[in-house]
Amino acid sequence: MTCSWCEERFERFLDGALTPGDHARLLAHVDRCDPCRSLLEELRVVDALLLAPRTIELPPNFTFATMADVRAMPPPCPLRTPLAASLIAYVVAAWCLAGAALLIAPNAVLGFGRSVLAVAGTVLGALAGLHSLVNFSAMIIADLIVLLAIAVVLRALRQGQSSW
């Protein structure tokens, strides 16, 4: 009989789940082996401590003191979403919606897209006089205008000046 064999069965021994043969072999080994006897005794003490119910006495003013501590704490700060994350999420969502709309109703979306590109091209032409870059730049200018509007609205909402 080895110590490792006994150590594997100590929990089942304490729970009373060993077979009668294993129970007798374990007791015979523990009677001859001091390290196993002391380990089994420690496990018995730990089990007794775990099974003993504990009651905790609270001071009489526990609730009052706890609530006073809570009142003294600073108010929680609201979680803020970074502006850059909001703007990136907008651009990704806008392009996904535009792609989905293009798949569903291509003629209507293309007509709307041409109108937006014409407006963006006019804005781009008025701003910089760069008519050669109208196709791709117009989309970027349109996105920047919408992003700027969203940034202004978010900043106004954060400052509590949503009077529009």
Output the number of helix runs: 7
How much of the sequence is in beta strands?
A: under 5%
N-to-C series of helices and strands = HHHHHHH
Largest sheet: none
User: What is the global morphology?
Assistant: elongated
Low-confidence stretches: none
Whole-number count of domains: 2
Which structural class matches the secondary elements? mainly alpha
End-to-end separation in angstroms reads 86 Å
How confident overall, as mean pLDDT? 80
From the alpha carbons, calculate the radius of gyration and give it in angstroms. 37 Å
Quaternary: single chain
Please render the helix and strand layout as text.
Elements (H helix, E strand, L loop, with lengths): L2 H13 L4 H13 L1 H18 L10 H11 L10 H22 L1 H23 L5 H26 L5
Helix pairs in contact: 1-2, 1-3, 2-3, 5-6, 5-7, 6-7
In short:
This protein is an all-alpha fold and 164 residues long. Helices cover 77% and strands 0% of the residues. It has two domains: 3-51, no CATH class; 83-159, no CATH class.
Mind explaining what this structure looks like?
- It is a single chain.
- The protein is mainly alpha-helical.
- It folds into 2 domains: 3-51, no CATH class; 83-159, no CATH class.
- It has 7 helices and no strands.
- Helix 1 (3-15) runs parallel beside helix 3, helix 2 crosses helix 3 and helix 6 crosses helix 7 (134-159).
- The longest helix is centred in the last third of the chain and has 26 residues, at 134-159.
